[in-house]
Write a structure and sequence with these properties.
This protein is of the alpha+beta class. Helices cover about 35% and strands about 15% of the residues.
């Protein structure tokens, strides 16, 4: 009898995990239309994923719908939380101060931390003016070459 209860609990847990909806509800605009109609126009999701709910409470119906390719900011917001964005390779949701692929520079300049998180490399640093990211190892190699040339 005990084994039967454990098995039943395990099966129910598997169903709960298999259909995990988004953790964060988002709004796709005005009104109270179905999210599947409103959100799909301007808030793209990876292939195989779809929106559920009614405005203004929209969420990804099943966050397990996506593989780790062609992710979007909308998917990351709904499935991970508002501070999550898709990385520059579009294969992982990361915690960044702003979007990695749709950053509005007037509002959110790049920082060293965001460059490293979004690009997945400790070698990335922000430009001095925050307008983008550069590969720090390339700069270091340039200076070493420059110093070698000066010493000749």
């Amino acid at each position: 009898m005990k084994k039967c209860l454990y098995l039943t609990a395990f099966i129910l847990l598997q169903f709960a995990i298999a259909a995990s909806p988004g953790v964060q509800q988002i709004s796709c605009g005005e009104g109270n239309l179905l999210c599947s109609r409103v959100c799909s126009l301007s808030y793209r999701l990876p292939k195989g994923c779809y929106w559920q709910g009614q405005q203004p409470s929209c969420e990804v119906a099943n966050c397990d719908c996506a593989t780790n390719e062609y992710l979007t900011d909308s998917y990351c917001h709904s499935c991970k939380g508002l501070n999550y964005f898709v990385n520059t390779q579009k294969n992982q949701c990361v915690q960044s101060s702003a979007s990695c692929i749709n950053r509005i520079l007037k509002q959110n300049k790049w920082t060293d931390q965001d460059c490293q998180i979004c690009f997945g490399s400790k070698q990335k640093k922000s430009r001095k003016d925050g307008s983008g990211c550069i590969n720090f190892s390339d700069i270091r190699a340039f200076y070493v070459t420059f110093l070698v040339l000066l010493s000749i």
